[in-house]
Write a structure and sequence with these properties.
Elements lengths: L1 H12 L2 H7 L4 H5 L3 H22 L4 H20 L5 H39 L8
Helix pairs in contact: 1-4, 1-6, 4-5, 5-6
């Protein structure tokens, strides 16, 4: 939900003049000049929740690397997006998808890493089965 508020609010900034004219209440209008700090807080909270889920599920380094890359991507977007320029908002909105990609890639990498570790442990077998 937090990450959705980030990219949806960036998207909403593209139409904020039209929203104000026709009376639509959008997050772009609600957040106004505080948008950057609010989206930074939502981004940090989103990444924090993802990292907590990874910790609680005993994910490894690949997962957290992907989560870190997602955090970097979101920080870059929030910092660089000009919320008063439609083209900049469009680029920021599109770039938010990469944050999800990095989390997905980290989860995939973690799964592959786990499978490789399990295969290595299975090939060694328990010590009691080693022939002397």
């Amino acid at each position: 939900m937090l990450w959705t508020l980030v990219y949806d609010s960036i998207y909403a900034h593209q139409d904020k003049a039209d929203d104000a004219r026709v009376g639509i209440r959008s997050t772009a209008l609600l957040f106004g000049e505080r948008t950057r700090s609010i989206l930074a807080a939502f981004s940090a909270s989103s990444v924090g929740c993802i990292a907590l889920a990874g910790h609680l599920n005993a994910h490894g380094a690949p997962f957290f690397l992907g989560t870190g890359l997602a955090a970097t991507q979101l920080a870059r977007i929030v910092y660089r997006t000009d919320f008063n320029d439609r083209a900049s908002c469009g680029k920021g909105f599109s770039a938010c998808g990469w944050a999800g990609f990095w989390v997905w890639l980290g989860a995939l990498g973690d799964y592959v890493w786990l499978q490789l570790r399990e295969d290595d442990q299975a090939s060694v077998g328990p010590i009691s089965q080693i022939d002397s």
